[in-house]
Design a protein that fits this description.
By secondary structure, this protein is of the alpha+beta class. It has 2 domains: 71 residues, Arc Repressor Mutant, subunit A (Orthogonal Bundle), CATH 1.10.10.10; 31 residues. Helices cover 61% and strands 14% of the residues. It is built from 5 helices and 3 strands. The protein has a 3-stranded antiparallel sheet. Helix 1 packs antiparallel against helix 4 and helix 2 crosses helix 4.
């Protein structure tokens, strides 16, 4: 699976998107991330593992505490992919508009 596929897969789940939203405010321990969620700590860990495999979050362990944060440039390749699609469709719509005006 490509990195882009892993990222889209990681973000396809509402719980993982909620974890990303929380981490967008700053780094958190796994316990801090799990507290407001209606799921168990092992389930949160599994979701975080998916986010890590997609290179969206990274973790660091100090002693017994594992802290997670958003990876630098976590969404850069997704942004490029979306921008390329947007340029392609805008170009097609521009051509369609021109065709319709010519008719």
């Amino acid at each position: 699976m490509s990195t882009l596929d892993l990222k889209f897969h990681a973000l396809s789940d509402a719980t993982r998107r909620a974890l990303v939203e929380r981490l967008s405010l700053g780094p958190c321990s796994m316990k801090e991330l799990a507290e407001p969620m209606a799921v168990s700590l092992p389930t949160v860990l599994k979701h975080l593992a998916v986010l890590e495999s997609g290179a969206i979050v990274i973790s660091e362990k100090q002693g017994r505490v594992r802290t997670f944060r958003i990876a630098p440039d976590a969404f850069a390749d997704m942004e490029r992919w979306v921008a390329e699609r947007k340029r392609m469709w805008n170009s097609r719509f521009d051509k369609l508009e021109q065709y319709l005006e010519d008719q």
